[in-house]
Amino acid sequence: GTHGASGESFCHPFLRQSNWMTRNLVIAGNFNLTNNDELFDMLVELGQHPSNTADTVMVLEKIGHFLDEANDFLFRKYRKEGLTRAEITKRIIKELDIYRVLKKATRSFDGGYVMAGMIGHGDLFALRDPGGIRPAFYYQDDEIVVIASERPQIQTALNVPIGSVKEIKPGHALLVKRTGEVKHELVNQPDKITQCSFERIYFSRGTDRDIYQERKDLGRSLVRPVLDAIDYDLENTVFSYIPNTAETAFFGLVEGVKDVVGERMKFHLLQEKHLTAARIDELLSFQPRVEKIMTKDAKLRTFITADADREELVAQVYDVTYGVIKPSDTLVVLDDSIVRGTTLRTSILRILDRLGMKKVVIVSSAPQIRYPDCYGIDMSKMKDFIAFEAAVALARETGRDTMLDQIYEACKADEKKPRAEAKNQVVRLFEPFTPQQVSDKIAEILTPVGMKAEVQIIYQSIEGLREACPAHTGDWYFTGNYPTPGGHRVVNRSFINFMEKSDARAY
Length: 507
Known about the structure:
There is one protein chain. The chain is α/β, with parallel strands linked by helices. Helices cover 42% and strands 15% of the residues. It has a six-stranded antiparallel β-sheet with strand order 1-2-3-4-8-9, covered by helices on one side. Strands 11-10-14-15-16 form a five-stranded parallel β-sheet, sandwiched between helices. It has a three-stranded antiparallel β-sheet with strand order 6-5-7, covered by helices on one side. The radius of gyration is 27 Å and the shape is globular. The two termini are 16 Å apart.
């Protein structure tokens, strides 16, 4: 992945072992916590000495601590009543309240998470963060309960209709007793629902009914800027996409372009007099030129490849289709997102230039990714983002070098404040520049030396994103509006690392 390491010991689930079945705890999940240092200190105050500050350790030990407390309370209660140890164990199995354990253990969590756990005697739970940042769904009937981070996986595995798959609501837990009793209860009250929009753009599979439509809408919203970029010259434009995850948004883009062609056709049919059969055939036969120009090995996803391996990988996963592009053509290529620009800079643009077109327009269905993530997708190194690189370059080119130092000092000062008072200081870096200026600088940075074709880059607008994904307002990657104080801490620390030339993770 983007952080961590490879190996069996790093794979979920993680186990907190005990000889007492009601104290055994196993956890697996999709989560990142931003306040591990604070959680570590809390555990130390309780008398524990955790081996490290990894969020998996913090989650296990926080839940495990309150699980131990719940066991101790019930043990003391029934010990006073004179029950034997074996009898007490049976009572604990029956009466252990996982809801109270989770409520106490997770109230200090700052992050995005969906975590599932099981206690040794058979009770299980699945818990979602109060902002709904990470997604979670479940299906239940008389025989089974199934929980997954994506809805279509449940539909496919069980062959059930979409209406039978329910969402675990933000801040809620699905609690399943060993007896088969299932409850869906509020654990942490949501302040504001900020479901992650990047899940909809890229991270989740596009086979979900709603995600499929949203990705098409993202593509459709790019029609006008794309047509402006090609000066409405559809006769000399070829449309394509890369990688495979951009295909659905590409359908939306092409459908939108076809609508424009249809309006143009309607205009000519209404305005032109004495239309001949040949002219009508000419008008009706015109369609946008849609081709599969670039092919990527579907097994290799460079976005989630470890840093050390990414550049080597991108050089091996792409190939192009020859004989389709003319020298007078403009090639429009849709990507789902442009995060680091690694694949464009080191591979894609160089390969595309061999086709001999006059211009390449790279279109991103996501807006400019300007700020790090810390809630599960785990992109925490700001220096890696091409939009950030472009903004820094613009600041230096326009004589705003001192602004970088001012932001750095503000970030350092912010670290000394209580976490709840943290603010995103890095937004100031982008304020002097329009999105178009940043996009133009990105195109300049990514264009390989010696490339013959002109390069233009178009990003999705924030407005287009919100219109396409109205229920998923978690757009901190693009706007810097983090849903938790820990997010503000992370973005500021990431900028500090950049200024201090540190390659460390920001949290």
